[in-house]
Design brief:
By secondary structure, the chain is an alpha/beta fold. Helices cover 51% and strands 14% of the residues. It has 14 helices and eleven strands. The relative contact order is 0.14. Bound molecules: pseudouridine-5'-monophosphate and manganese (II) ion.
Length: 315
């Protein structure tokens, strides 16, 4: 009875595709994908190409993709081609972080889900693994600006594993890792001991644990949640060697763009999209190319972790 009521309540806010509803009911492997990367991370039509390729990669590995977005006040779990096209083309869609969810949905608006809100929506739908590019974190100069991404609090509180290529050096990576430690979020390096810095395989900081096994990562997730240890996990998967960018080139470009953002007085939720767009511009889209490839690689790893997790949860 109680369970039914909860489902009905969710139905008022959440729309899930038939394929995904069935897959989740049967405990199949599902991987969530975010939509801020579509509306604010890349421009049209690269954003659509990247979203579609990510979905295809997940299917090729044997899992089912669930791109998540808010459209006309509904949390959509799984977008069809038309919805994806709409989302990629429409300008000015609001970036929806946790604090924005209630108003955007109450006003029946569209919202692009960040890592934080994609995790939150994934959990509502029962999805446990999520692939993205990079997580938000503690921004440089956060000591003065207090700019710390809500992604980090969500990782502390919401039971979803996030596969990413680390965090961009637009952030203070050292402080980001300190924050995750304080919040009790495990950071696992997939086949690496170094925490990756998105475009490059190393950041100069280490991960807590290296794991070379999808099954071991899945078991660590099950163990964490069995023990009632609240929150998610960061699985850091470095950009494939062949797509890695030159360290000095990307560091110099990043420093320039961060300085420009401060000069222009960019603040708050505009900061990350501003930096992403300008980086693509100053690198002549080299960063965009790397960005796409690392997302596909993360989609592949996430699919395999989801598959292992679905096996051990069925036992
Ligand atoms: N970092 C990236 N690419 C992205 C983002 C972050 O390298 O697209 C997006 C993600 O959706 C992330 C959000 O959740 O930006 C973080 O924004 P903020 O720093 O405002 O919390
Ligand atoms: Mn912020």
């Amino acid at each position: 009875m109680m369970e039914n009521q909860e489902l009905n309540l969710l139905g008022e806010y959440v729309e899930i595709t038939g394929e995904l509803a069935l897959a989740l009911k049967e405990g199949k492997a599902v991987v969530a994908l975010e939509s801020t990367i579509i509306s604010h991370g890349m421009s049209y039509p690269q954003n659509i190409e990247s979203a579609k390729t990510s979905e295809r990669v997940i299917r090729e590995e044997g899992a089912i993709p669930a791109t998540i977005a808010i459209i006309a006040g509904k949390i959509k779990i799984g977008l069809d081609d038309e919805e994806l096209e709409y989302f990629g083309k429409t300008k000015g869609i609001a970036k929806a972080s946790r604090r924005d969810m209630a108003m955007i949905i109450a006003r029946k608006l569209d919202g692009a889900t960040t890592v934080a809100t994609t995790m939150l929506c994934a959990k509502l739908a029962g999805i446990k693994v999520f692939a993205t590019g990079g997580i938000g974190g503690v921004h440089r100069h956060a000591q003065e600006t207090f700019d710390i991404s809500a992604d980090l609090m969500e990782l502390a509180n919401t039971e979803v594993a996030v596969v990413c290529a680390g965090a961009k050096s637009i952030l203070d990576i050292g402080l980001t890792l300190e924050y995750l430690e304080t919040q009790g979020v495990p950071v696992i390096g997939y086949k690496t001991s170094d925490f990756p810095a998105f475009y490059t395989r190393k950041s100069g900081f280490a991960v807590d644990y290296r794991s070379d096994s999808y099954a071991e990562i899945a078991l660590a997730l099950k163990t964490k949640w069995d023990l009632g240890l609240k929150g998610g996990m960061v699985v850091a998967n470095p950009i494939p060697v062949e797509y890695e960018m030159d360290y000095d080139f990307i560091t110099e470009a990043t420093n320039r763009v961060v300085a420009l953002a401060f000069e222009k007085g960019v603040r708050g939720k505009e900061m990350t999209p501003f930096i992403l767009a300008n980086l693509h511009e100053v690198t002549g889209n080299k960063s965009l190319f790397a960005n796409k490839e690392l997302v596909y690689s993360n989609a592949r790893v996430a699919a395999n972790i989801a598959i292992e997790l679905s096996k051990i949860l069925k036992r």
